[in-house]
Amino acid sequence: MKTYIKLFALSSLFVLGACSNDFLDTEPSTTKVEENFYKTPADAYSGLVAVYDVLQREAYGGPLLISEQASDDCFGGYGIADAQTDIEWDRFLFVSNKEMNADVWKYAYLGIYRANILLEHLDQVNWGTDTALKTRYEAEARFLRAHFHFMAAKMFGDIVPLDHTISASEFQLPRQSAEVTYALIANDLKFASDNLSNDNYSQTGNANYGRITKWAAEAYLARTFLFYTDYYKKTDMAGVVTKAQATAYINDVVTNSGHGLVADFANLWLAASFDKFAGEDNTEMVWAVRFNGSGKGDWNLNEGNRFQVDIAPRGGAIGPYATGWGGATVNPKLYQAYDPGDTRRDATIIDLKNETYKGQPLNFDAEAREQRQYTGYSWKKFCPINNDAGTSIVEANGGNFQIDNYQDYAVIRYADVLLMAAELNLDSNPGLALADINQVRDRAFKDANHRLTTANFNKVAIMKERQLELALEGLRYFDLIRQGMAETKAQIDNTNTDSQFNVTFRTETLGWFPLPQSQIVLSNGTISQNPGW
Predict the structure, then answer these.
(1) What average pLDDT does the segment 257-277 reach?
(2) Cα dist. 486→154, 472, 482 in Å?
(3) pTM above 0.85, yes or no
(4) Distance from the Cα of residue 514 to its chain's centroid
(5) Which residues contact 182 (CB under 8 A, 6 or more apart)?
(6) What per-residue confidence (pLDDT) applies to 169?
(7) How far is CA 305 from the centre of its chain?
(8) Computed from CA positions of residues 6, 8, 13, 18, in that sequence, does the dihedral angle turn out positive or negative?
(9) Is the pLDDT of residue 381 over 80?
């Protein structure tokens, strides 16, 4: 931890400079330090923007891409000459590069640091009579601090929870037990849930779309509750949130948030719907990380979605789909898991062998494109697209196809809310739980003939529905490990006549990814590597 914490301590508030043109234009940055920056609500807003800013960097791939490669939904992919890192994530091998997860660690703690800086200076601001604004900023910052802690904790297990900016004497703090980290997460999410207003920003053109709401906080609390209590076999969340409370929070989102399902699942994804795309600020998006194409090829900016190019078809545009690197090729097992009539399959996955466009087959030549681990399937969710002239929309707008894709990353959809509600209500109110999951299935099949009944509704059915509904959204691997190592291994292990697809999950890792080796070295013995690595 010492490397980046020292850097942050020295850089102080200069991390906020990029977020405020007025600040840069009116006063030299060398005069702005923590002690004299936070004076007005506008200053606090700049600090809040700096916390949100980390989300765009975090979403370049990070836990989303890594977890999909590690799950049973995808293989490593990319090109035959590309680095082996993605194969190692796929196969859970003893890795050759112990820095492979350094960015996940770095961005999590960058977000935590920025949130703590803001929270520690809110009392310095002259809020006047608008104390409600102070509470709102505190709630948003605490939600984001909880999010960044959870991003690290679900990847690495025990981490170093930080509820304050640390001093030089704390540069080598040890990792804490999960209970300590999740108590901080739970308290932060409870504060956000209980102190944000009932506003719902998912209306077209709403200027606040992408900001944290009460509904996002309640849903995120349910997500962290389910992960913690399942993985660690606990009945409550670190003594802070009971199951009854978590259930009440998620039911509140279902009943009172105003969010709902988009009528057609395909319309959630640009590459699956084109001119029928529901738009990113649609009623189903409870919380999304926002992106835009304003960078126009400037690698120094962090506005575009740099993740999308990773999963787009390798070696050039094909049909309506723009070019990319062919990462995380889709496992045929996922494609085959969908029942006939389930509209989610063809809206989630590109069938490179059989799909047609304008009456013509896609004709994807994997050998010519040097696609590694070619399965015949790739991502349709999040895939960038071309315009009618066959040019990438991003490039047609003056951007760079690698860094200026602009589709938002949906962190929490209302469908996920319904499935979490089904899971949390399963024992206490099975009728309500069944109704929640069947809303998702009715939309998937566009009829009421595929509903689950009391005879086939259980936790296993919920987890299967989560896989089908939320495939390629960065949740599958974490849903697996919370079910235990035996189930994780049963789903991930893969034996194939072609050895490049052979995967053996190693239960001795307990499902955790390797820590960046640099952090272990710099900790001077206070941090040790995760088991199995």
Answers:
(1) 97
(2) 18, 22, 11
(3) yes
(4) 19
(5) 153, 224, 228, 237, 238, 240
(6) 87
(7) 13
(8) positive
(9) yes
